[in-house]
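Lab notebook: predicted structure, single chain.

Context: the supervisor wants predicted structures on file for every construct in the current expression panel, including those that have not yet been purified. This is the next one on the list. No modifications to the sequence; it matches the entry in the shared construct table.
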Amino acid sequence: MAISPFNSNRWLAWTNSSRTTIKEEKTIFCGDEAMWRQLIRENATALATEINKTPSDLYGWRLWPARGMSQDPTDILNVANSEVSRLRASDEWIYEDGDPDASTKSLLWGEGQGFRRRVSRAVSAVPRGLLDSKPFTIDGYGAIGLTLALGILGRNKGLNPRNLKFQMTRELSTLMENTSTWRPRPAKVNRSYFRKPLQEQYGGISSAFVDVALELSLLMMDMPYWAIAEWLIGGFEHQSMETNRFLRRLPIADNEERQAMLKAHYESSYVSMIISLNGMNPRMKTPPPKQRNLLSRPDIMCIGLLLKARGCPEPSWWNKDNVSKRRTNQVGFLSQDSEWKEPMAKLLGLTEWPVGFENQRSVWRDSGS
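Prediction complete. Output recorded below exactly as produced.
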């Protein structure tokens, strides 16, 4: 029996790669699949006797064996001992968020390191009705968007979700609805109703986080299933790890400038996520194309806008050739028929889009100039 498009997307939304908080001293163990498997062998007894299984990690009856390591990386790291193991890894899968004194780090893990897909542990906080194959709220509202959004947000928060920027206003939400790739955005009529459960779910984090959850839920209702699937298959719900690696390896002499850049990368990541959906490449309006590489996230542009909103002068790296090319390439995947510049700027704290900011040679214009 064929799996419905929603159930397929629900699987992706809840089982894609996850971000997990780990102790800084444990980052030495976070390597490739071979390294994780070696850690499992070294700590097999402890993993079998000291770790209590989480129900959401387990697979039920199945005809074929599930591929990948079944252990959770957090459990592996909890029993790994640096005094015993000689394994040492690079920082390939660790996000750098610009905090030099952080005692914890954010690990991105999943199939890329050989782990088995499993449902995010955040599922334990989701109401039963939202987990059905045809989800509805207790009031009978269709809840496909809520279910997908909760799965995504259960995996991509990072270390300090209170610090994530997303300055939504009523006027800005209307602009985004009216200029979206998916306009006229019919799910907008649910905006007031969906805010209530999302406030209960995420209000303890921040009002900005609630606004992100609401926008994500509504977009998941308005977008065709194939566009959602392509976006999730590409891992675009996450702050770009590839971009994070690129940025932290830039030759920047000023350490404070480096930290500000990496901090802005994390804190602007939800704006980049929402803009990548609302202003998605219009070629995704039709069923999946034969070739991929039609999607991206405007992470670098969002970093610059947030730094500018904070009154920073033009960074020394901003107009380097390799940065400019990546920045231009990232925004080149957005729709040229939808308005994404003004929402991007305002969500990050600016009053308007800076003239010339999108140019290959970006015009920064420091405050007062």
